[in-house]
Amino acid sequence: MRLNPSDIVITADDRPGIHRAPRQISAKRQTVEAPAARPKAKRRWPRLRLDMSPLQRLTGYGLAATILLIGGLALWHSGKPQRLVRETATAFLNSTAEAGFQVADITVSGRRRTPTDQLVSALGAQYGDPILGLDIAAARARIEALPSVRAAAIERRLPGAIHLSIVERQPVALWQTDSRFVLVDRDGHNIPGAIEGFEDLPLVVGDGAPARTDELFALLATEPELASRVKAAIRVSNRRWNIKLDDVEKGLEARLPELDTQVAWHRLAELEKTRALSGKQITMIDLRVPDRLVLKSEREPVVNTASAAPPARER
């Protein structure tokens, strides 16, 4: 549908150059608000930018880190941080002791030969000390370092009790050295103190004998009946054993080999069961050669019961 020019109506408001009449202003005074002031812009200072290469930046960072490290080390070596930590810890422990957490009772179990004063000294705790200040691991190490103590356990029973449980070393033999006797346990450790009450223990003699005590008693235990008759064991050249039965001086001496020692020990036990050599005035039996048995009696200096070969020389 086409529009004719007569169909287009232009109002006064739409005519060019002609504006709408202003509205009538009331006689009542109008209040005109001033436009809000813009916030004052902050003054920005110019930023200093250093035109540095990556290598120069890396060097600067390294220098700063070096300065901090040197300063920290100097402060540490001055001892001030350590003193501060110690003083703080001491003050805290003293406050706990004042609150009732202090050593009031020390009990010990398992003690037979270890002197009480040695245990208390090694424990490092006195009555009235802060119980939380006891270093359990360090105290245990000191107690286990005592010659007569094999193992130890420490319990802190709050608020004020410490219980010490120890396992003492058990004497299994007397070691003769320099004309004196020392108690030793299966591990070969010397146990200080008097030997009263342990005079009937087997005697071990010779250099290196205590260190081989465990090995010796493991061997003897394979023949319990014969082991109960062992009175002394002599370590020869720190290589092998001579065993004395029934009596240290006049008993039967059995010379065991360096190798196949257990076989020779079983052989001796069998001979005692079948022939009772110790009851036939036999003073020595040499078991060092597997296919030869050399005996020595009070009547005959040397008797070879296996062959006519000369007796083996002492090794």
Automatic annotation (TrEMBL):
Keywords assigned: Cell cycle, Cell division, Cell inner membrane, Cell membrane, Membrane, Transmembrane, Transmembrane helix
Membrane-crossing segments per the record: none
Domain POTRA span(s) in chain numbering: 101-169
Domain of life: Bacteria
Membrane topology listed for this record: Single-pass type II membrane protein
Keyword GTP-binding included in the entry's annotation: no
Keyword GTP-binding attributed: no
GO cellular component: cell division site; plasma membrane
Predominant place of localization: membrane
Protein localization: Cell inner membrane; Membrane
GO biological process, one term: FtsZ-dependent cytokinesis
Protein purpose: Essential cell division protein.
Similarity annotation: Belongs to the FtsQ/DivIB family. FtsQ subfamily.
Annotated protein name in UniProt: Cell division protein FtsQ
Source organism per UniProt: Paramagnetospirillum magneticum (strain ATCC 700264 / AMB-1) (Magnetospirillum magneticum)
Encoding gene, per UniProt annotation: ftsQ
